[in-house]
Specification:
The chain is an alpha+beta fold and 200 residues long. It has one domain. Helix content is 26%, strand content 26%. The chain contains 6 helices and 7 strands; from the N terminus they run H-H-H-H-H-H-E-E-E-E-E-E-E. Strands 1-7-2-3-4-5-6 form a 7-stranded antiparallel sheet. The mean pLDDT is 93.
Length: 200
Protein backbone atom coordinates (compact mmCIF):
# COMPACT_ATOMS: atom_id res chain seq x y z
CA UNK A 1 0.00 0.00 0.00
CA UNK A 2 1.35 3.42 -0.94
CA UNK A 3 1.79 6.20 1.62
CA UNK A 4 -1.06 8.06 -0.07
CA UNK A 5 -3.35 5.06 0.39
CA UNK A 6 -2.22 4.70 4.01
CA UNK A 7 -3.15 8.34 4.70
CA UNK A 8 -6.64 7.85 3.23
CA UNK A 9 -7.19 4.64 5.21
CA UNK A 10 -5.96 6.24 8.44
CA UNK A 11 -8.04 9.40 8.05
CA UNK A 12 -11.22 7.40 7.42
CA UNK A 13 -10.60 5.31 10.54
CA UNK A 14 -10.91 8.43 12.70
CA UNK A 15 -14.16 9.74 11.22
CA UNK A 16 -16.48 10.47 14.14
CA UNK A 17 -13.79 10.55 16.83
CA UNK A 18 -14.11 13.55 19.16
CA UNK A 19 -13.68 14.55 22.82
CA UNK A 20 -17.05 13.03 23.75
CA UNK A 21 -17.06 9.94 21.49
CA UNK A 22 -14.14 7.54 20.97
CA UNK A 23 -12.13 9.90 23.15
CA UNK A 24 -9.22 7.47 23.65
CA UNK A 25 -8.68 7.21 19.88
CA UNK A 26 -9.01 10.96 19.50
CA UNK A 27 -6.44 11.63 22.23
CA UNK A 28 -4.08 9.01 20.79
CA UNK A 29 -4.22 10.68 17.35
CA UNK A 30 -3.62 14.23 18.57
CA UNK A 31 -0.89 13.28 21.04
CA UNK A 32 0.74 10.92 18.52
CA UNK A 33 0.66 7.90 20.78
CA UNK A 34 0.81 9.71 24.13
CA UNK A 35 3.91 11.78 23.32
CA UNK A 36 2.39 14.69 25.22
CA UNK A 37 1.93 15.30 28.93
CA UNK A 38 -1.42 14.48 30.53
CA UNK A 39 -2.10 18.21 30.87
CA UNK A 40 -1.40 18.90 27.19
CA UNK A 41 -3.60 15.95 26.21
CA UNK A 42 -6.42 17.41 28.30
CA UNK A 43 -5.85 20.89 26.85
CA UNK A 44 -6.06 19.44 23.33
CA UNK A 45 -9.67 18.44 24.02
CA UNK A 46 -10.50 22.16 23.90
CA UNK A 47 -8.36 23.09 20.87
CA UNK A 48 -9.37 23.23 17.23
CA UNK A 49 -8.15 19.92 15.88
CA UNK A 50 -7.97 20.60 12.12
CA UNK A 51 -4.18 20.94 11.84
CA UNK A 52 -3.61 18.64 14.82
CA UNK A 53 -5.47 15.88 12.98
CA UNK A 54 -3.33 16.29 9.84
CA UNK A 55 -0.19 16.06 12.01
CA UNK A 56 -1.61 12.97 13.64
CA UNK A 57 -2.44 11.24 10.36
CA UNK A 58 1.06 11.88 9.03
CA UNK A 59 2.64 10.55 12.21
CA UNK A 60 0.43 7.43 12.17
CA UNK A 61 1.63 6.51 8.66
CA UNK A 62 5.30 6.92 9.59
CA UNK A 63 6.19 10.51 8.63
CA UNK A 64 8.83 11.81 11.03
CA UNK A 65 9.91 15.41 11.61
CA UNK A 66 11.08 17.37 14.63
CA UNK A 67 7.66 19.02 15.00
CA UNK A 68 6.12 15.55 15.30
CA UNK A 69 8.74 14.24 17.70
CA UNK A 70 9.05 17.20 20.06
CA UNK A 71 6.42 18.29 22.57
CA UNK A 72 3.61 20.31 21.02
CA UNK A 73 3.64 24.10 21.45
CA UNK A 74 0.12 25.47 21.86
CA UNK A 75 -1.19 27.26 18.77
CA UNK A 76 1.59 26.04 16.48
CA UNK A 77 -0.18 23.19 14.66
CA UNK A 78 -0.71 25.24 11.43
CA UNK A 79 2.99 26.16 11.39
CA UNK A 80 3.91 22.54 12.03
CA UNK A 81 1.89 21.20 9.10
CA UNK A 82 3.26 23.81 6.70
CA UNK A 83 6.89 23.43 7.83
CA UNK A 84 6.72 19.63 7.70
CA UNK A 85 5.33 19.81 4.16
CA UNK A 86 7.99 22.34 3.14
CA UNK A 87 10.75 20.06 4.42
CA UNK A 88 9.61 17.39 1.95
CA UNK A 89 8.98 19.82 -0.92
CA UNK A 90 5.29 18.91 -0.70
CA UNK A 91 3.71 22.40 -0.64
CA UNK A 92 1.65 23.00 -3.78
CA UNK A 93 0.29 26.39 -4.84
CA UNK A 94 -3.51 26.50 -4.83
CA UNK A 95 -3.51 29.12 -7.59
CA UNK A 96 -2.04 26.54 -9.97
CA UNK A 97 -5.00 24.17 -9.71
CA UNK A 98 -6.33 23.62 -13.23
CA UNK A 99 -3.05 24.56 -14.92
CA UNK A 100 -0.89 22.11 -16.87
CA UNK A 101 2.58 21.18 -15.57
CA UNK A 102 5.57 23.13 -16.94
CA UNK A 103 6.94 21.71 -20.17
CA UNK A 104 3.66 20.10 -21.22
CA UNK A 105 3.73 19.96 -25.01
CA UNK A 106 -0.04 20.01 -25.49
CA UNK A 107 -0.09 16.70 -27.37
CA UNK A 108 0.12 14.25 -24.48
CA UNK A 109 -3.44 13.26 -23.47
CA UNK A 110 -2.17 11.43 -20.38
CA UNK A 111 -1.02 14.53 -18.53
CA UNK A 112 -3.59 15.89 -16.07
CA UNK A 113 -3.85 19.49 -14.85
CA UNK A 114 -2.76 20.25 -11.30
CA UNK A 115 -5.32 19.23 -8.71
CA UNK A 116 -5.27 17.82 -5.18
CA UNK A 117 -5.87 14.07 -5.01
CA UNK A 118 -7.18 11.72 -2.35
CA UNK A 119 -4.51 11.42 0.33
CA UNK A 120 -3.30 15.00 -0.03
CA UNK A 121 -3.99 17.53 2.71
CA UNK A 122 -5.15 21.09 2.09
CA UNK A 123 -5.00 24.56 3.61
CA UNK A 124 -7.77 27.12 3.15
CA UNK A 125 -8.00 30.71 4.42
CA UNK A 126 -8.98 34.24 3.49
CA UNK A 127 -5.89 35.31 1.49
CA UNK A 128 -6.48 39.07 1.89
CA UNK A 129 -5.89 38.90 5.65
CA UNK A 130 -4.56 35.39 6.39
CA UNK A 131 -7.47 34.61 8.71
CA UNK A 132 -9.87 31.67 8.75
CA UNK A 133 -7.14 29.02 8.57
CA UNK A 134 -8.37 25.46 8.19
CA UNK A 135 -6.74 22.15 7.25
CA UNK A 136 -8.15 18.83 6.11
CA UNK A 137 -7.25 15.57 4.38
CA UNK A 138 -8.77 14.77 0.99
CA UNK A 139 -10.38 11.33 0.74
CA UNK A 140 -12.16 11.63 -2.60
CA UNK A 141 -12.31 13.96 -5.60
CA UNK A 142 -15.93 13.78 -6.70
CA UNK A 143 -15.59 16.00 -9.75
CA UNK A 144 -13.14 18.43 -11.29
CA UNK A 145 -13.48 20.85 -14.16
CA UNK A 146 -10.07 22.56 -14.55
CA UNK A 147 -11.72 25.83 -15.53
CA UNK A 148 -14.67 26.10 -13.18
CA UNK A 149 -15.32 23.68 -10.32
CA UNK A 150 -13.72 21.24 -7.87
CA UNK A 151 -15.80 19.04 -5.57
CA UNK A 152 -14.03 17.00 -2.93
CA UNK A 153 -14.66 15.02 0.23
CA UNK A 154 -12.28 15.26 3.15
CA UNK A 155 -11.78 14.17 6.73
CA UNK A 156 -11.42 17.31 8.85
CA UNK A 157 -10.77 18.00 12.51
CA UNK A 158 -12.27 21.03 14.24
CA UNK A 159 -15.85 20.27 13.23
CA UNK A 160 -19.16 20.98 14.95
CA UNK A 161 -18.79 18.07 17.36
CA UNK A 162 -15.34 19.33 18.33
CA UNK A 163 -13.80 16.39 16.54
CA UNK A 164 -13.25 14.73 13.17
CA UNK A 165 -15.91 14.46 10.47
CA UNK A 166 -16.37 13.88 6.74
CA UNK A 167 -16.92 17.16 4.88
CA UNK A 168 -17.85 17.83 1.26
CA UNK A 169 -16.66 21.09 -0.27
CA UNK A 170 -17.28 22.71 -3.64
CA UNK A 171 -14.68 25.17 -4.87
CA UNK A 172 -15.35 27.57 -7.74
CA UNK A 173 -12.64 29.34 -9.70
CA UNK A 174 -12.83 33.07 -8.93
CA UNK A 175 -9.95 35.16 -10.16
CA UNK A 176 -6.62 33.77 -9.00
CA UNK A 177 -8.08 31.37 -6.40
CA UNK A 178 -10.42 28.42 -6.03
CA UNK A 179 -12.98 29.56 -3.44
CA UNK A 180 -15.03 27.37 -1.11
CA UNK A 181 -18.66 28.13 -1.99
CA UNK A 182 -19.83 27.75 1.62
CA UNK A 183 -17.17 29.51 3.70
CA UNK A 184 -15.71 31.90 1.12
CA UNK A 185 -12.18 30.76 1.97
CA UNK A 186 -9.62 30.11 -0.76
CA UNK A 187 -7.72 26.89 -1.35
CA UNK A 188 -4.33 28.44 -0.66
CA UNK A 189 -2.11 25.33 -0.64
CA UNK A 190 -2.31 21.60 -0.77
CA UNK A 191 0.32 19.15 0.40
CA UNK A 192 1.31 16.39 -2.02
CA UNK A 193 1.24 12.99 -0.30
CA UNK A 194 3.57 11.52 -2.94
CA UNK A 195 6.36 13.79 -1.71
CA UNK A 196 6.05 12.85 1.96
CA UNK A 197 8.41 10.14 3.20
CA UNK A 198 7.65 7.56 5.90
CA UNK A 199 10.62 6.52 8.02
CA UNK A 200 8.92 5.56 11.28
Amino acid sequence: MSLREEIIKTALLYEGACPSHRKDEYVDLLTRGEQESAQTAEDMMHMSSCALAVRGFWFKVGVRHKWLLERYHNGMAPRDVIEIAKSFGAVMDGKKIGLMPPGWDGDNPYVDPYCPQAGDSFYILFPHNGKGEHFGTVTNIKSFDPKTKLVMESIDGGQANGGIMMVERTFTKRGAYWVDNKSGRSLFNWFDADKLVATG
